[in-house]
Amino acid sequence: MSRRCFVTGNWKMNKTVAEATALVRELRGLVSMVRDRVEVAVAPPFTALYPVAKALEDSNIALAAQTCHAEPSGAFTGEVSAPMLKEVGCSWVILGHSERRQFFGETDATVNRKIAATVKAGLLPIICVGETLQEREANKTLEVVTTQVKGALAGFAANPAFVIAYEPVWAIGTGKTATSRQAQEVHAHIRQVVGGLWGQDTAAQVRIQYGGSVKGDNAAELLGQPDIDGALVGGASLKAADFAAIIKARA
Ligand code: 13P
What CA–CA distance (Å, rounded) separates 250 from 34? Predict the structure, then answer.
């Protein structure tokens, strides 16, 4: 079973339109040669999605949003819906990022509803799970990610195109990466949980990205693990050369 490596850059609340379009123009040139070997996506802030989509036309880089609302439209001041994201050229939506859970009250139940909205709009989710340092130290990592995966996927028929991102909260933006062994252990466990829900055949096709301080110099080791199928990159996706180095680590 071969799972095509998938690397996504999560820009978080960074980049003006001018900065965002300059970044993807540079990135296009750097990653054009990995076309078939690695799938690449970038997730700019909402304001830059449309201009970035234009700047990515005829490229091999896809567009992702960082969240969406669960309803298609309505009185939800400040929110953006999945059909709106589809219209501006997104293919993917990152859901359940730990920063959304921590700062914006997102729960497994809201993530579940947002996945439904995403799929209904013709988009695919990148579903983030991961334990806090406290949970890891209490030996609760596998329990926490099991609950998050089951909660997110509840009620969905098997879908091998869904992507899961394992992002240990303590590794995000801290420079502390999980060791490849720690990450592989959790990835293998997540695949087992998906297998319990959707069967082994689908579980063998679902891609699981690792996220948390991925850089050019640790990417090859992480991406070389049997159950690590790509990366969800924050800080190092903000510079074209740094992000390209991660993409090329697998290519
Ligand atoms: P860093 O790569 O900056 O640690 O961020 C990871 C992340 O949260 C990606 O979604």
Answer: 9
